[in-house]
Amino acid sequence: MEELLRRSEKLTTVGQLAAGVAHEIRNPLTTLRGFLQLQQETNKLNHRHLDLMLSELDRINLIVGEFLILAKPQAVHFQERDIRFILGDVISLLDSQAHLHGVEFVLNASSDSAMVHCEENQLKQVFINLLKNGMEAMPDGGNIRIKLNHDEENNRVRIEIKDEGTGIPEELMPKLGEPFFTSKESGTGLGLMVSQRIIQSHKGMMDIKSVMNKGTTVIIDLPASQQQPESVEEENNTDNEPTN
Ligand code: ADP
Ligand code: MG
Fold it and tell me: Can you give the pTM of this predicted structure?
């Protein structure tokens, strides 16, 4: 019953979102059609037109990509995973891009292990979204501090992502996570909403605090898995450290 309710709820949100996505895609499609028509009638497409067409196509691709993460009917596969490794993977993925923009990731993991029952790729998507937002908020570079804390007493894992960027104006705070709310010229305004949904589906919480011209902190709180890393299935660890 609960599952059914949850699924129907999800269908509604995905349905609502689809309407928004269709709307968002129609604008770049109209532009593309206009240029193609221009080409057909006058054979006068220039480089600038082609650049615009490419960026409009990229925009469609981005919107559809983020939407698919939510709407994909394929089964999600939850497994026991160590959040440290997920964060590590995402950081190495984005590191070179970050360096190019003068951004440094500083990871501070206070515990030995932080196992979470999760869909690894979805959590990676969340961290990619959040780290990218942090980078985009620091046009002149700076540090993004990522703090991981495993509260063993309460069985929670807490991840803090703190940037030194522009911050978010107070009046925009309620808009965060609203689909298509973006302050960026080429933003989709889907990243936070997708992240929020993923964290919710992991029975976690996401919170955002921001101080103008100081930076923004995103806090994620997830239930820790009871399972110990030694007993993790499907992991073919040959480099297990001896336990002490
Ligand atoms: P997008 O990044 O495509 O704009 P998001 O959903 O990721 O969409 O973010 C929505 C908006 O929230 C951003 O456009 C920006 O205004 C604000 N925002 C999110 N994260 C940050 C951050 N770390 N620093 C400053 N503003 C942020
Ligand atoms: Mg974003």
Answer: 0.77
Of 133, 140, 193, 199, best ligand 1 pocket probe by most atoms within 8 Å of the beta carbon: 133
In terms of Cβ atoms closer than 10 Å to its own Cβ (0-12, 13-18, 19+), residue 86 is: buried
- Asked if ipTM goes beyond 0.95, one says yes
Ligand 1 atom closest to Cα of residue 189:
8
Q: Ligand 1 in contact with 163 (CB < 6 A)?
A: yes
The Cα–Cα gap between 97 and 230 comes to 34
Strand partners, 105: 144
The list of the chain residues with pLDDT below 70 reads 1-16, 70-75, 227-244
Of 129, 148, 97, give the one whose Cα is nearest residue 199: 129
**Residue 129 alpha carbon, nearest atom of ligand 1:** 7
Length of the chain equals 244
Query: Which distant-in-sequence residues (6+ apart) come within 8 Å of 228 by Cβ?
Result: 113, 115
Q: Which ligand is nearest to the CA of 165?
A: 1
**Token pair of 193 as six digits:** 């909403």
CB 83, CB 220: distance < 8 Å: no
Q: Which residues make beta-bridge pairs with 116?
A: 81
